[in-house]
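Hi all, long-time lurker, first post. I run a small reading group and we've been trying to get comfortable going from sequence to structure in the token notation. Rather than ask abstract questions, I figured I'd post a concrete chain and ask someone more experienced to write out its structure so we can walk through it together at our next meeting. Sequence below, copied exactly:
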Amino acid sequence: MKKFLLDLTVTAVDRISDKHVLVRLTHDDKLPDMLPGQFVEVRIDGEPQAFLRRPISINFVDRANNELWLLVAMVGAGTCRLGRLSAGDRLNCLLPLGNGFTVPETGCGRVLLVGGGVGVAPLLYLGASLRERAIEPTFLLGARTAADLLEQELFQQYGRLCITTEDGSLGEKGFVTNHSVLGEQFDDIFTCGPTPMMKAVARYAREHGVSCQASLENMMACGLGACLCCVEKTVDGNLCVCKDGPVFDTRRLLWNA
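-- Answer (accepted) --
Happy to help. Here is the structure in token form:
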């Protein structure tokens, strides 16, 4: 897909938890086409500690309002600066980057989307895209506590929502791979979140003969495959997550080597 370098305008910054904000962006022209699972590289202005762009998953594309949503975890100087943006500010973005999820055909099969922490971000847009294809997804979201769960109401608009929390404060207690919904039969699984969680989901998929795609969150500096800092070992050799991913069929990853 063609890439664009755009100065986007902030329409709103919604604080959705103590550590997370939802940044909504627009442009005077129609936003480019973007696929679920792709990401943007954001330039951080006004923060001397943030020399490199920050890769952020595409959380949602609101075509009706010509908005791009970015779910940002404020964990460092750069992302905290994003959390201080205000409506009317400009944000320079390189987009769309990477390869997105391969979505099933219209009305085909039962689909499970598994996310943990801020890794739930790309699954919202994926879920909306599945609904457009007459596929109602099941979302399985995990977090440490109820306070750490993100965008629950939005996910419920697009499919069935199942929840796990490590402390049992909401949903079933434990990890996502402990949830009772995994006793059901699914045809496709999509996952994004902490690597140990994704490896556990991939192992479950392999053991049950289910196709599984994972969106990796390796450190990505350039977003174009030039700096080689995001290399992942696969059956096809070392591949750049930013250029060849971030979405991979888990059968191609050497997670079990």
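A couple of things your group might point at:
The radius of gyration is 18 Å.
The chain has a mean pLDDT of 94.
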